[in-house]
Write a structure and sequence with these properties.
This protein is an alpha+beta fold and about 600 residues long. The protein folds into three domains: about 375 residues, Alkaline Phosphatase, subunit A, CATH 3.40.720; about 80 residues, 2-Layer Sandwich (Arylsulfatase, C-terminal domain), CATH 3.30.1120; about 110 residues, Jelly Rolls (Sandwich). Helix content is about 25%, strand content about 25%. Strands 1, 2, 3, 4, 5, 6, 7, 8, 9, 10 and 11 form an eleven-stranded mixed sheet that branches. Strands 16, 18, 19, 21, 22, 24 and 25 form a seven-stranded mixed sheet that branches. It has a four-stranded antiparallel sheet with strand order 12-13-14-15, with helices on one face. The N terminus is likely disordered.
Length: about 600
């Protein structure tokens, strides 16, 4: 008999039910709620579209879509993927959710968080997720644990990464014919990844055409590895991505030949995405549901490689605008509003409250939102946000005081890349109304403003870094009825900084273990020599076993008793003075 430790899930369900009791109102039930499709791409920068001024990339579908949409021209996200997605799903700054990094165990969102999928599903929506998740690969953090009825996903932050254990071994062909995870189970798929995710999304839409649905289509492209079908690459084979920008207003980066080749491949992947979005939009037309379907398009951060980025400073991982400003398009034909540019600042934290408003669903009052509803803009009006502040940060592993951190307030951006005890004068201050490329540091010209912005930044930073889910970091649950066996992967491993595909490195997983007997399997990157010991540290004791098999890349420990624990799960193979960390660990409860 399984014993469930994670009682917080039941508490959360009660909160959602109480907060959404409004859906029992018969007047609201009579209103036809719109479908919602949220599309996000991975590492596609602001400049990777025709409608943002790039003469090389071919995006006819999205260019046309932009002309039919409400366009937010000052829309912001986080500098990297997982934080952007946590904020997108919850309407809260990522640090509140426990998400602090893209790996190092920092891309796991606390199960207590209430997602947009949970809110809409409680209001009768069918919910589907297709593509990248990057907010935890095990129970209770998977899409199917966080409000999605249907999910087809890869693991970790990208296909071909060490954390995505089914595609990583294939390296140069990881985007083709992958083994993906369908509702928590491995399943073989055929074709190119972006085509697969779109096809699965379209099937979900067809199946739910007669009820309101929420479809989250999260492309993993054009993230590295830059793999793309030959027919798309051939469109750009002879393109010089650095040519034709002599008359652009902003600075243009120096591009090496590798940069140019990377840009060709990125543009090819982008055109493939454009074609796929075209197929999805056509399906809405064919099903005659386009009018009542809200379609949102955005990207998750700036470009990873140097190429055209509308003159903005910074790339992916940077808090300068080039790392965090992305397109945000909303098309809702039934509302009758289209082809409008909105220059007011908006951000990924605004998506949940906006979608909830569009769908006539109340967000539980118990949830502390950082975002605001953009519905007044979508209706053609405005809201007073001149004093609104937006906070940005990212550093590897955990937040660092005054490293890659920024506060935006109105047209001013206050940026820190300095020491932990630095005064305001060591920061940068930009007036983006006059200087959208963040070239001229005005810190000495506005000391009072700089001091005020630093004080506000300090307050926000201290509040967020004191969040419950950051202090008590999310844990994977072992030995439950929802996921057995559990496979712990490298993306969710913590320990030494930047645990990736190293062998001799200290790593562990934060877990909750249900008492029971387990079979354990340890996969290594390279075969380990015989004569060593397999060691597993859980809480206050170690389980160990002699290994006599020489050159083994898989070691098994059977019938291991583990008590009820909340602990760090620390496995390693001890051979001489070497401690070798597994690539992944499988724990199967057998009692």
């Amino acid at each position: 008999m399984y014993r469930i430790l994670n009682s917080r899930l039941y508490v959360r369900s009660g909160i959602i039910a109480a907060g959404l009791a409004v859906i029992n109102n018969p007047n609201l039930q009579a209103v036809e709620r719109p479908n919602v499709i949220l599309i996000i791409t991975d590492d596609q920068g602001y400049g990777d579209f025709g409608f943002t001024g790039n003469p090389h990339v071919r995006t006819p579908v999205l260019d046309s879509f932009a002309g039919e949409s409400i366009r937010f021209s000052n829309f912001y996200v986080c500098p990297v993927s997982a934080p952007t997605r946590a904020a997108l799903m919850t309407g809260r700054y990522s640090l509140r959710t426990g998400v602090r990094d893209t790996y190092n165990g920092g891309a796991m969102m606390a199960s207590s968080e209430v997602t947009i999928a949970e809110i809409l599903r409680s209001a009768g929506y069918a919910t589907g997720h297709f593509g990248k998740w990057h907010l935890g690969d095990n129970y209770p953090m998977r899409p199917i644990d966080q409000g999605f009825d249907e999910s087809v996903m890869h693991l970790a932050g990208g296909m071909g990464q060490p954390g995505d254990l089914t595609t990583w071994p294939r390296r140069d062909s990881s985007y083709y014919d992958p083994v993906l995870w369908h509702n928590g189970k491995q399943e073989k798929y055929y074709g190119y990844c972006s085509d697969i995710f779109t096809s699965e999304a379209i099937e979900f839409i067809e199946k739910n055409r007669d009820r309101p649905f929420f479809c989250y289509l999260a492309f993993n492209a054009p993230h590295t590895p830059l793999q793309v079908p030959e027919k798309y690459y051939n469109l750009y084979r002879n393109t010089d991505p650095s040519a034709g920008f002599e008359k652009t207003d902003g600075p243009f980066p120096q591009m090496t030949e590798k940069d140019r080749e990377d840009a060709r491949r990125v543009y090819a992947m982008v055109t493939n995405i454009d074609d796929n979005i075209g197929m999805l939009l056509k399906k809405l037309d064919d099903l005659q549901i386009s009018g009542n379907t809200v379609v949102i398009f955005m990207t998750d951060n700036g470009p990873q490689q140097r190429r055209y980025n509308a003159g903005m400073r910074g790339l992916k991982s940077s808090v300068y605008r080039g790392g965090v400003r992305v397109p945000f398009l909303v098309r809702y034909p039934k509302a009758g509003i289209r082809d409008i540019d909105i220059g007011s600042a908006a951000a990924n934290i605004d998506v949940l409250p906006t979608v909830a408003d569009l769908c006539g669903v109340k967000v539980p009052a118990s949830i502390k939102l950082d975002g605001i509803s953009l519905l007044p803009y979508l209706k053609g009006g405005k809201r007073d946000e001149k004093d609104r502040s937006l906070f940005f940060y990212w550093t590897r592993h955990s937040p660092e005081l005054y490293t890659n951190i920024a506060l935006q307030k109105g047209r001013f951006r206050f940026v820190g890349n300095t020491d932990f005890d630095a005064p305001a004068g060591n920061f940068e201050l930009f007036d983006t109304g006059q200087d959208p490329y963040e070239i001229n540091n005005l810190i000495k010209d506005h000391p009072t403003r700089a001091a005020e912005m630093k004080k506000e930044l300090d307050l926000i930073f201290m509040e967020l870094t004191g969040s419950e889910n950051l202090i008590e970091r999310p844990r994977i649950e072992i030995g439950n009825i929802h996921e057995n066996p559990v496979i712990l992967n490298r993306n969710d491993a913590d320990g030494q900084w930047a645990v990736w595909e190293q062998e001799e490195i200290f790593g562990f997983w934060r877990v909750r273990i249900n008492e029971g007997k387990y079979n354990l399997r340890f996969r290594f990157i390279k075969p380990v020599p015989g004569g060593g010991k397999m060691m597993v540290e859980t809480g206050g004791f170690i389980s160990q076993m002699e290994n006599e098999i020489n050159e083994a890349d898989l070691i098994e420990m059977k019938n291991v008793y583990l008590p009820s624990l909340k602990c760090d799960f620390v496995p390693f193979y001890l051979t001489g003075s070497k401690r070798i960390f597994p690539l992944w660990v499988e724990l199967e409860r057998i009692d």
